[in-house]
Amino acid sequence: QVQLVESGGGLVQAGGSLRLSCAPSEHTFDVYAMAWFRQAPGKEREFVAGISVSGASIQYGSSAKGRFTISREDAKNTVYLQMNSLEPEDTAVYYCAAYLSTRPNLPPPPRPQEYDYWGQGTQVTVST
Asked: Which of 2, 7, 97, 111 has a CA positioned 20 to 30 A from the CA of residue 26?
């Protein structure tokens, strides 16, 4: 069982930045594609960004393109989501997810049903 622990959420003004981190407990972190999803009240869980096992393939949801950057640092067993130019519409609980993959360059899937493990989420609130 892989446990994912997110950190870095909080309250920020519109236009500001936050960096989220996710540290899986599994030592074989480098066999998982990783992704960030978010869920606002009353809305479905939304794909934000994903990164393949190798790091060579990165996908972004439409809301994240040009503003957010996902990266992974396998030496530290950590995946990051750098969020810039935040808007009130970005307010949501952000979840880290892991997908066990045997294909290092396979693009991370955008559907939450594909993922094997989830963190408990971290709240991001963007004020006007």
From this structure: 111
